[in-house]
Amino acid sequence: MSGRHSCAAAPARADYTGNGAVIRIAPGTYAIYAHLQPGTVRVRRGQRVSAGTVLGQVGNSGNITAPHLHFGIHDGPFLATSASLPWVFDRYRLDGRGPLGEDGSVALAGTPRTERRTYPMNLSSLTLAG
């Protein structure tokens, strides 16, 4: 995310996304961050944010079994009623891929590597530069 964007904290809803934040990047384009830790969302409706702004902490809110971040770029501000739009990260470290085990553990497979201008696949574990 580059530049400054309008930000709105996601409405408190008893649904599968839990706590979150929604950033309006452009008309009809929203970055949605879901499953943030309760009480850690640091942005408020209408606040302007820029790259590097801390929105909250990854948590275990909503309909999930282990802490993780659900992120996407959508054509509307609500995950359940909007369509996902294509996007890529400029750069990230792909730590590996692996499913969540019944005990909550994740056994990552693959060799860690830096990825550029790609979209991480499902079940990927990433490290993003701050």
From TrEMBL:
Pfam families, sorted: Peptidase_M23
Family matches, as InterPro entries: Cell_wall_metabolism_enzyme (IPR050570), Dup_hybrid_motif (IPR011055), M23ase_b-sheet_dom (IPR016047)
Domain M23ase beta-sheet core: 15-75
CDD domains associated with the record: M23_peptidase (cd12797)
Segments passing through the bilayer: none
Domain of life: Bacteria
Recorded GO MF terms: metalloendopeptidase activity
PANTHER family listed in its UniProt record: MUREIN HYDROLASE ACTIVATOR ENVC, PEPTIDASE-RELATED
The protein's name: M23ase beta-sheet core domain-containing protein
